[in-house]
Structures are given as structure tokens and as C-alpha cells.
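DEPOSITED CHAIN:
***
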Amino acid sequence: MVHPTTGCDRVSEGCDNCYALTLAKRLKAVGSPKYQADGDPRTSGPGFGLTLHPDALRVPYGWKSPRTVFVNSMSGLFHARVPLDYVRRVFEVMADTPQHTYQVLTKRARRLRQVAGHLEWPDNLRSIRQA
């Protein structure tokens, strides 16, 4: 998946130096389509409004060689405004493409705990750690 979601909102001090927030601002400035939605300036910023990109879900099916994929490097997959059904779809892609290794990170451990039992965890999602 090439960024099935983009954008986020600050949730902790760990977000103070968010590289994705800075990068989204640059990507918006150069016209990158995925980074045109602005987030709330109090918690997000230019080009960093939470946005779902369902078309990106098909991308891993076309990769011929195995890859390591940072699923949500430009977003918060477990953001409260990402519907559970969409998170499930992301997990289905991971399960359907076991030749790839997926990395899913979050600062939203509380939401992850809330939805974890409603997700089918693929074998190729190797380890879970709380940041």
C-alpha cells in the first residue's frame, strides 16, 4: 500500500517533531494530489488533513517482488476518524499479500486496543509494540 491514509492530528508530545506533518506541507506546495486536504491548524496543518485513499489498497497486489511496507508512514491508521471497516480492508490486503512484510506503527494505542479484537491479524504482521 502506498499510503492508504494520509494526514493526522497531534495526540502526544511524541508528535511535536512529526516528519510527516512537515513533509505533507511540502507535498501540498508541489501539488501532490494526496496532500491537498488541510488539517485543523491547532492539531494538524497544511496538506495533513486525514484522508482515506481506497485506490491505494490495490497497489500491493501488483508488486512482483516482496517488499517491506511502512503502511501508515504519512498518517494515523488508528485515528478515530478512520472507520473500522476501512482498517479491516487494510488488514485484508496485508493478509492477501503475505509475500510482503508490513509495518504498522501507532501512537493511538488506546484505539488499537479497542479495535484489535475486530481485526484479522495476518501472519506477516510480525510484531506489535506500543510506542
Summary: The radius of gyration is 14 Å. The first strand starts at residue 5 and ends at 6. Helices lie at 19-29, 84-96, 109-115. The chain has one domain: 5-118.
